[in-house]
Amino acid sequence: MKRKGASCLFPFIQKPTVMICLAIDDEPLALSIIKNFSEKIPFITKLETCSSGIEALEYIKENPVDLIFLDINMPHISGIEFARILETPPMIIFTTAYQDYALTGFDLSAIDYLVKPFSFERFLKAVNKAYELFLLKGNTFNKPVSDNYIMVKVEYSTIKILLDDILFVEGLKDYIKIYTDGKNYVTKSTMKNIEEKLPPALFMRTHKSFIINLDKVSAFENNHIILSEHKLPLGNQYREQFMAFLDKNKI
Question: Of 13, 39, 159, 185, which shows the fewest CB atoms inside 10 Å?
Fold first, then answer.
């Protein structure tokens, strides 16, 4: 009998993009199984666990999450209630011992609905489905292999851009424009997505439409930040953080 290769089990394994996941369940054994299964999947780079919806709400406030494995029957906040509370929910795969909520789960745009106990094969099928959607959503930025560049999808190519070459990033609705010393690149993404990928020690959000490379700032005058020949506005909600940066580097 011919053995299935890795490419059969993981149809997207050649793609370097990875997902950050969160498992929410009040049963330690259920969390352990999901964690064990996730460790076998190469495109899940990180899995955090929470034992209640309340704990998970606090976690999501401070951390990016691409996919949630969500139990339904939990104390205080059920999985269904939790999914409805989220204003901009990540992708959700329900993991529950009850089949009765399947229609409700799919009404909440769940990726899949796994009934416990589920096998690794069934778990993998659900996760592959989520990963395919994750890639289609325009997550065109990959974690840098090194700390000094990002890989960006531009039209039909994936371009390596050195962080030191980036002047600033401009948000254009569903796209962003990356300005460098030599060339500019437009790609489908969001400001939130690129902001999460850029190192905060080097880059700062200074306006709802701009993220700047702090090393490229040449001057600040009349409420505008000067980078090379570009003059960018400083947004009110970002003023305190930027002014603190200036004060820290004053002589």
Answer: 39
